[in-house]
Amino acid sequence: MYQGIAASEGIGIGKAVLLVEPDLDFSGAVFAGTDAEKSRLSAAVAEFTQKTSALAETMKARVGERQAEILTGQVMMISDPFMTGQMNEAIDSGQCAEAAVDAVCGLYIGMFSAMEDELMRQRASDVEDLKNRLLAILLGRTAVDLGSVPPGSVLVARDFTPSMTAGIVRENVAAIVTEVGGFTSHSAILARTMELPAVLSVPHITTLLQEGGSVVVDGGEGTVLPDPDAAVLAEYERRRLALAEEKAALAELRGKPTLTADGVKVDLYCNIGGPGDVNAALEATAEGVGLFRTEFLFMDRAALPTEEEQFQVYRDVAARLEGREAVIRTLDVGGDKDIPYLGLEKEENPFLGFRAVRYCLERTDVFRAQLRALLRASAFGRVKIMLPLITCVDELRSARALLEELKRELDGEGVPYDRDVKLGVMIETPAAALIADLLAREADFFSIGTNDLIQYTMAVDRGNARVAYLYSPLNPAVLRSIRAVIRSGAEAGIPVGMCGEAAADPLLIPLLLSFGLDEFSVGAASVLATRRRISRWSKADADALAAQALVLSTEAEVRALLKERIMGGL
Amino acid sequence: MVSEKLTVINKAGFHMRPAGIFVQAMGKYKSDITIVYNGREIDGKSIMNVMAACMKQGAEIEIRCSGEDEEAMLAEAAGMVKSGLGEE
Hints:
heterodimer; A: alpha/beta; Enzyme I, Chain A, domain 2; TIM Barrel; 8-stranded mixed sheet; 8-stranded parallel β-barrel; 22 helices; 16 strands; 13% strand; B: alpha+beta; Histidine-containing Protein, Chain: A; 4-stranded antiparallel sheet; 34% helix
């Protein structure tokens, strides 16, 4: 068994097809005269352009616009008059077309690979791909044709270039395996988009596997198993089918309402980190956005974003959700995030310091711009405003007062906004959980942020391996806290959501349903699985399990009970 | 020759897509275009040179156009940079 990087989930079983890159040695090429070499070059460039444009079209249809962009980019590169000019100059100095292509492309490969910017460094592999294919055309050697592999092929190559992947016919390929490339490489992204099992960076795999040999690829574990015996093969075949069934079952839930087993509707939302995540949320058929983190607007730049700039982003997100709710969290920064222009000092205890709503209430210039932008965006969709790290009622009151002041300001300017825009608080500190009843009188909604609530309740840094064992939502202290918050919200008649990772946790979901959580907000990848987990519980079953779990004394006891009932019973 | 000083505002600067759109638009003009950045002169019709210059968000650049349609060329080039090269 060989181990590599698990780049794209799924199990692929098939016959190895070893892709050998064409021999591009041009040391035998003879200089045929300046004019002849130049016309060979321009013919090769024309052929390259025509072929690559055609590949890009295929790619656009098969995989998507974004993946095709790499190929259209290569067409733009080869159409650069400056670069082809350099190649012609090299021919003028007595080099053959192959040497000219090699030298000029080599120059740019060197230039791009030396860059600090990751995005720009990737261009080096584009130029490399362009160079190799141009050389193959000049030398009359055909590049590997992936369009003609038989069904059930496991493609094995040193690396997959953009032009190679464009030729892949999904139906005929069981999996892909490479010797280089990481989780974010072009091959990995493409494999995940095409839902092809993939294991990358397996050392020497092109020489370890035999052409036509039987092979099993587990893209979830990152393993490649050659020549499996009948028993092993049967086991993998069983797992492959189970995975496929699981996937089909989840696909069934696409676009369906989120209902408990006894037909109670709960809201299933998505967490997003920027406008770029809206598509994934909609694709996963989330019913709204339960947490939009706005920090990205403030990071990687030299000055504060303007009100106008923020407004455009919030409006864009609100509008694209087409009537679904968008819970937008105000700036959540602190001394642990490096945003130099905010003037935050390094602190001894950044997690207990000048951060989030504390910062915003002091730097009202920053806060006003954000709140005005949010109010203005509320005219274009269902915007809800959420305050992070609330620990006392005063903070909510100050923010509310500022919001009311800004509403009057907008009235004066005749700018439209939603008069009924909701202002809620994130419950992520023990202080907020303990005064949830007081906060509920004045807040329009709650959202429990489990990541921080666990950290502050258990006084544990989950990044610290020595104490990370304490970081669990199943600790009785955390469970009681969550239950009390949901109860306070229900008593005051305001909705309570949860926007941490815990909302998708199969062990926690029945307890949350029993407590009466109204809204579950999870990552896009977990939406369908969460919908299914919720669908398995009736109120009565969840209540019975919660009653048993909440009298237990330790995290381990709670976990053991839930595991037995949930994993064992299903 | 006409010229204008500008700041690159879009997040990723002149990476592949914006650079491609830019040089394609400039290719329509007869005039020459030079971008001066960090003391270097870059041919504004060459995507390879534009990308290789690595002009990112916040980069202070000067665009110089010279030729028979220099005014129109500069206006379009400056407009593209100011509007964020078609990106956020």
